[in-house]
C-alpha cells in the first residue's frame, strides 16, 4: 500500500534491528580499523626512516593496530546505527 506523497516520513529501523546490526559491526570495525592503522604504521615508519623489522610492516605495528582497532570498533557501529535510525525521506 502506497502512502500519499505528502505523508510524514517513517521513523527508521526498529531498535532491536539497529542494536543487532550494531553488534555485528563491532568485530568488523575492529579488524578494518586495525588494518588501516597497520598500513598507517608502515607509512609512519617510512616517513620517519625507522629501522625495519623482518616479517612485519613496522616494529610498532601492534600499538597502531590496537588503537586503530579500538577506534574502528567504536566508530563503525555508531555510524551504521545512526544511518539505520535516520528517518526515511518521503518519496516525491
Explain what this protein looks like in three dimensions.
This protein is mainly α. The protein has a domain at 27-85. The chain has helices at 15-47, 61-85. Helix 1 packs antiparallel against helix 2. The mean pLDDT is 85.
Structural class: mainly alpha
Number of helices: 2
Number of strands: 0
Tell me roughly what share of residues is in helical segments.
Answer: 55-70%
Q: What general outline do the C-alpha atoms trace? A: elongated
Rg calculated over all Cα atoms: 20 Å
Question: Topology, please?
Answer:
Elements: H1 15-47, H2 61-85
Helix pairs in contact: 1-2
Summarize the model shown:
The protein has 92 residues and is mostly helical. Helices cover 63% and strands 0% of the residues.
Key terms:
elongated, single chain, 92 residues, 2 helices, mainly alpha, 63% helix
